[in-house]
Amino acid sequence: MADRVLVPYDGSPQATDALELTFDEFPDATVIALYVIEIPDGRWAQLLGPELQAPVSEKAKEHAADVLETATELAAESGRSLETNVVTGEPDDRIVAQAAAESVDLIVIGSHGKEGVSRVLLGSVAETVVRRSPVPVLVVR
Predict the structure, then answer these.
(1) Is the pLDDT of residue 126 over 70?
(2) For residues 100-133, b (16+ Cβ closer than 10 Å) or e, as one string?
(3) Angle between helices 91-101 and 124-132 (to 10 degrees)
(4) Between the CA of residue 71 and those of 56, 57, 63, what are the distances in Å?
(5) For residue 39, what pLDDT band results from cuts at 50, 70 and 90?
(6) Cα distance between residue 50 and residue 35, in whole Å
(7) Please, what are the domains in the chain?
(8) Are 137 and 104 spatial neighbours (Cβ–Cβ below 8 Å)?
(9) What is the pTM for the complete model shown?
(10) What is the mean pLDDT of residues 127-138?
């Protein structure tokens, strides 16, 4: 059984389904909702690392806080507590890095179809997380 579960949460229906499933299936686990403020490819991507972070706007930070407040409300409705965290960068990279940094046992991630044949079953972020994760990944459709 998983003691620590990371749920990437962006407020989408798929992420909400993943969070709710986590509350139902892992009642004793510590749940961490992670919001990634996406920094586009380019020069800023070179700055990402354990100590350097690209600057983000106050509007982006406020949006992240609002999204995670919704996740916290979902947790309260389920009678659960929730840890939250906001990071910046490429979502797939940061999810995998956060899983290692938080010493989680499992990632529960929502999936949704993207364009192209390879994205029919998994979204591109979920697909990359599944391939690169240091821990098991449960994909919720």
Answers:
(1) yes
(2) eebebbbbbbbbbeeeeeeeeebbebbbbbbeeb
(3) 40
(4) 22, 22, 13
(5) confident
(6) 17
(7) 4-140 (3.40.50.620)
(8) no
(9) 0.85
(10) 96
SS3 of residue 97 by DSSP = helix
Give the model's pLDDT for residue 71.
98
Contact 98, 6 (CB under 8 A): yes
Mean pLDDT of the chain: 86
d(CA 125, CA 134): 15
The answer to whether 6 and 102 have CB atoms below 8 angstroms apart is: yes
Cα 58 to Cα 44, 47, 62, 66, 132: the distances in Å are 17, 19, 6, 12, 31
Among residues 12, 2, 19, 11, which one has the least CA distance to residue 113?
12
Residue corresponding to tokens 């990634």: 36
67-78 residue pLDDT tens: 999 999 999 999
Q: For residues 87 and 36, what is the distance between their CA atoms, to the nearest angstrom?
A: 5
Return the number of other C-beta atoms located less than 10 Å from residue 60's C-beta.
15
- DSSP H helical segments within 1-141, as ranges? 13-25, 58-77, 91-101, 124-132
